[in-house]
Amino acid sequence: MQVQSAYASGMQGLQSAQQGLAQATTSVATPEQQKPAVPNVSVQDTVTLSSRAVGQTDTTSALVSATESSNQAQASAKVIEVASETVGSLIDIEV
Q: Which tops the pLDDT comparison, 35 or 87?
């Protein structure tokens, strides 16, 4: 069994975060599909209300995903930093 190094895990995490962030920002930036105009009436049907809620939910989940990807990138960068410091201290001890 091969164990992946901490540096490789950090790099893989950064790549995954980059892909997730690109996907989330694309979802947020994509304009909503043209919806037919809803006449101004005091009572709206539940289909119209639920379709608006779905659009808001999609944008909200994309923004949450973008935040998660950003946090993942920060954590992966910290993993790479600690791995680099650890290797540096091991080399200092050996010399």
A: 87
Instruction: Give the model confidence (pLDDT) of 1-42 as tens digits.
Output: 344 688 899 999 999 999 999 999 998 888 765 444 555 545
d(CA 59, CA 63): 6
By the 10 Å C-beta count (0-12 exposed, 13-18 middle, 19+ buried), 25 is classed as: middle
Task: Burial-class residue 19 by CB neighbours within 10 Å (0-12, 13-18, 19+).
Answer: exposed
Half-sphere exposure of 27 (CA within 13 A, CB side): 18
Tell me how far CA of residue 30 lies from CA of 34, 54, 59, in angstroms: 12, 15, 10
Q: What is the pTM of this model?
A: 0.64
Cα separation values, 58 from 3, 29, 67, 68, Å: 38, 12, 14, 15
